[in-house]
Amino acid sequence: MATEHPSAWVRHRVFGRMRNRGLVLLVALLLQLIMYPLVEGPNAPTTPWIVAYWLATPLLGVVQLASRWWMIVVAAMCAAVIALIAGLTRVQVFSMPGEAVVMLGMAIYLSAAISIGRAALFSHELVDNRVYAGFSAYLLIGYFFAAVHHWVWLQDPAAYEVGGQKGPADLHIADFIYFSFSTLTTAGFGDIVAVSRGARLTCMLEAVTGVLMPATFIARLLAQQPRKQG
Question: What is the pTM of this model?
């Protein structure tokens, strides 16, 4: 008798009976979107529970919706972030080694977005969860590009300008999340402006992704709808 894989046990025993399990991830991502501007800023240092929530959200989504191989990859990267932060002092985390944390964050959210997006488009398990999974993948892409903007800023603090002020901008993770989603949705409010070539290239890639991803997802869902017999 074949032994059931632990990831399959989690999916079928814990989440399998949830009709709208994709909604859990969507709500968690929306709460994360609301939480960051409230807790991040010049005088609001990152606390361990915020980091834990930031890591748990994509991992929860992959466990719920994606394959076990994606779950292993994302779990390994989350463990690497925890190990890196645990082995560094507070000052070190936000200096040069902070770039490694940001890059791992980019990899985690991109992996989660790709795996959940694939599940939303192709998985036969998620008939009732494809819309929720698609929205979640879209939000994960926004968080991924926020990390990319953060990394670009770490390389060049003058890559972005705020409010028309010249010189390096004092930005925080909440600012990058706000700027990322305003770019992803092509709102472009203009209070934060990309100045360097790297920042502008990131904005162009994000804007194209923000337009093409929903169109592709909607077209795929419509193509999968059963046709009425004439």
Answer: 0.82
